[in-house]
Design goal:
Strand content: under 5%
Pathway: Phospholipid metabolism; phosphatidylglycerol biosynthesis; phosphatidylglycerol from CDP-diacylglycerol: step 1/2; Lipid metabolism
Function: This protein catalyzes the committed step to the synthesis of the acidic phospholipids.
Helix content: 55-70%
Oligomer: single chain
Number of helices: 6
Shape: globular
Subcellular location: Membrane
Strand order of the largest sheet: 1-2
Order of helices and strands: HEEHHHHH
Distance between the termini: 39 Å
Family: Belongs to the CDP-alcohol phosphatidyltransferase class-I family.
Keywords: Lipid biosynthesis, Lipid metabolism, Membrane, Phospholipid biosynthesis, Phospholipid metabolism, Transferase, Transmembrane, Transmembrane helix
């Protein structure tokens, strides 16, 4: 197994570890860190750091794979799967922690399923749908929003600026728009006359 695929697998294996720190409340790691009016439990800080590290490996594995000519079918399968698992796991956990509305998460995850389905149909037709700029913007805004929510809006909480809330709204809007963009630009893939 090559280096990019190992990095992608490491990202997948970080997901359950992140969930343990987010969702299990063991007394020895649930102490609060407090800076003025801001507070965050140690376990949530560790979960946020794990999420940020895992999310940052996404660009690294792809860059190494392309630069060293190590692109594999396994990597093409694992990389988007790892991204979707990481984002979905974090968002569902944030719903459980009452930090984000469930309907927002349903919209974001539904878009992921829809675009993945479109890509699968395109593959069956012999074509590949490349990531668009809107798709990349979607990923970036989702990662920033989730990170801000995991960190309890740090450091913006000190000045009373709802950065995390704004980012999750922006991520949702861009997620919906990017999904529509994929379907509009690739409507030829959905040839209903063959169905």
């Amino acid at each position: 197994m090559n280096l990019p695929n190992r990095i992608t697998l490491a990202r997948i294996f970080m997901i359950p570890l992140m969930l343990v720190f987010l969702l299990f409340d063991f007394e020895w790691w649930s102490h609060e860190l407090t800076l003025g009016s801001y507070s965050l439990s140690v376990n949530h800080l560790i979960a946020a750091v794990l999420f940020i590290i895992a999310a940052s490996t996404d660009g690294i594995d792809g860059h190494i794979a392309r630069k060293r000519n190590l692109v594999t079918n396994l990597g093409k399968l694992l990389d988007p799967l790892a991204d979707k698992l990481l984002v979905a796991a974090a968002l569902i956990s944030l719903v459980a922690l009452d930090k984000v509305n469930g309907w927002v998460v349903v919209i974001i995850i539904s878009r992921e399923f829809a675009v993945t389905g479109l890509r699968e149909i395109a593959l069956l037709e012999g074509s590949v749908i490349a990531a668009s700029n809107w798709g990349k913007a979607k990923t970036i805004t989702q990662i920033i929003a989730i990170s801000a929510l995991l960190l309890n809006n740090f450091p913006f909480e000190w000045i009373g600026f709802p950065f995390a809330d704004i980012m999750i709204w922006l991520a949702t809007i861009i997620t919906v728009y990017s999904g529509i963009d994929y379907f509009v630009k690739n409507k030829h893939v959905l040839n209903f006359s063959k169905m």
